[in-house]
Design brief:
Layout lengths: L9 H11 L7 H7 L4 E5 L2 E4 L4 E4 L2 H4 L8 H14 L11 H13 L4 E7 L2 H18 L7 E5 L8 H6 L16 E4 L13 H19 L4 E6 L15 H11 L3 E5 L13 H6 L5 E4 L11 E6 H7 L19 H16 L2 H16 L8 E7 L2 E6 L15 H11 L2 E2 L1 E3 L2 E4 L7 H24 L4
Parallel strand pairs: 3-13, 5-6, 5-7, 7-8, 8-9
Antiparallel strand pairs: 1-2, 2-3, 4-10, 9-10, 11-12, 12-15, 14-15
Helix pairs in contact: 4-12, 5-12, 8-9, 13-15, 14-15
């Protein structure tokens, strides 16, 4: 933890938070009574709450603190940049050194054809900006009807207005409006819940056929792009069948539909590579969106990586005096870009991607031992991006009733034992800092073993199983 000790009035801080902070993705039927746990310190793989309780961070903040907490050199890089020049506009032919250096570094790390970077302030904004640029691209090509975006059920692409419409998690948009005229959702790629009796290869054929039929029904001339996470994150760490992404991309290319990879979660080492699209899934997207691990959460930053082919159109003015009239006040913010540059330096210097490739399979293997518990139906994911699906019946895969709050129960039992994991309905997600070693994995799995045993006992005591 920080060497500088700061004391808090825990009760007063809790009350201020409860009275004034509108928390995202929070159940207010509970919040109004219980408020929130306040995290006040962090270091390495640990965080500490306002009462001094220490926890292993099993979710990397929120999929993002890839190099771990408390990296003084990232803080120093930010402080140095803020002292030198905290901010200046990047509009109207102005720029700054960290933004330029980072853009070149991202082009070096990304698949070879993605040489151009459009900055935003996070993943959701990156996805919004991307769709606006895609529509503009086709307008410039004289194809103004190409507006529809194909996304997937249970996809997560953010909560800004358009990104929320791309998101296919039904509960995310309960009583919120969405831009349904722009987005069509296809089936998610979910090997665990594929149709009974269908092989993985047949399931892949089934999903590709659905895409082809949707294109035929909508008309390729009306479709601009297909957007997908390499592994679906907040929707449940859903794994596609082998070869799915490459086949989907091939269908898109055959129909003049852009292929967008949302690597907001998978980028910067979570699957053992800076970008997973080409290295893991054998695809070469027209666009890759990233955020989270780009700065390891030390400063808000998102980026859209654009192919040479698209930029040839985007970078040509509409006419004399024309400008690319989109962007943000904080596009290429120098302090955020300085944080990202130092973060990438650490990832490379400490061979953190290599650590993920070495420790990740061990984490997968050890987590699968939890399948012995009565409620654990599936343990899935890859490397440092994993989920446990809780069920009432392993044979039928029937879920427990919502009121059982099984994911919350497991997370609470883990937190009692010194581990923070993420509950998402009937799921529990593990997405740790990428610096975990095998000893940490062993400690985490031992805690989870106890947490699932305690959860099973409480579910039985309350009559849910």
């Amino acid at each position: 933890m920080s060497t500088e000790t700061r004391t808090y009035d825990a009760q007063a801080l809790w009350q201020k938070d409860k009275d004034h902070f509108i928390h995202p993705f929070t159940d207010y039927s509970l919040f109004h009574e219980k408020g929130c746990d306040l995290i006040t310190e962090s270091d390495g793989i640990y965080v500490e709450d306002v009462h001094g309780n220490r926890f292993i961070d099993g979710i990397a903040g929120l999929w993002c603190v890839n190099v771990g907490h408390g990296r003084a050199e990232i803080g120093q890089a930010m402080a140095d940049q803020a002292t030198r020049m905290a901010y200046f506009s990047t509009f109207n032919n102005l720029s700054n050194a960290p933004a330029a250096e980072l853009a070149a570094k991202l082009a070096e790390l990304a698949p070879a054809h993605l040489n151009h970077v459009f900055y935003s302030c996070g993943g959701s904004a990156a996805n919004d900006a991307t769709i606006r640029l895609v529509h503009y691209y086709f307008n410039r090509l004289g194809k103004p009807n190409k507006k529809r975006i194909l996304s997937r059920n249970n996809a997560y692409h953010g909560t800004t207005y358009l990104a929320a419409s791309l998101t296919g998690i039904a509960s995310n948009n309960w009583e919120f409006d969405t831009l349904d005229h722009l987005v069509t959702h296809l089936s998610e790629a979910n090997c665990y819940r594929r149709p009974a009796g269908m092989s993985e290869a047949d399931y892949c054929d089934h999903l590709v056929k659905e895409l082809e039929e949707s294109i035929e029904s909508i008309g390729a001339d009306n479709i601009a792009a297909f957007i997908a996470e390499p592994i679906m994150g907040a929707g449940g760490v859903l794994m596609a069948p082998q070869g799915y992404h490459a086949r989907i991309q091939a269908v898109c290319r055959a129909n003049d539909i852009l292929f967008i990879a949302d690597e907001v979660v998978t980028g910067f080492g979570r699957l053992g590579h800076f970008f997973a699209s080409e290295a893991v899934f054998d695809t070469q997207p027209d666009i890759i969106n990233c955020a989270k691990g780009l700065s390891s959460g030390y400063a808000p930053l998102g980026a859209t990586l654009i192919s040479d082919e698209l930029f040839e159109v985007l970078g040509t003015p509409q006419g004399k005096g024309g400008v690319l009239s989109t962007g943000f006040t904080y596009s290429g913010h120098p302090v955020s870009c300085a944080a990202a540059l130092k973060n990438i330096e650490i990832l490379e210097r400490e061979a953190i991607c290599e650590n993920v490739r070495e420790v990740g399979p061990y984490l997968e293997q050890k987590l699968k031992t939890l399948a012995d518990h009565e409620t654990v139906g599936d343990v899935r994911g890859s490397h440092f991006m994993l989920a446990i699906e809780n069920v009432a019946d392993k044979a039928t895969k029937e879920l427990l009733p919502v009121e059982a709050r099984v994911g919350d129960r497991v997370a609470a039992e883990a937190q009692k034992r010194g581990l923070i994991i993420r509950p998402v309905g009937h799921l529990n997600i593990i997405s740790p800092p990428l610096i975990w070693d095998r000893d940490t994995v062993d400690r985490v799995v031992a805690i989870l073993d106890e947490a699932f045993a305690a959860t099973t006992a409480s579910l039985k005591a309350d009559g849910f199983i």
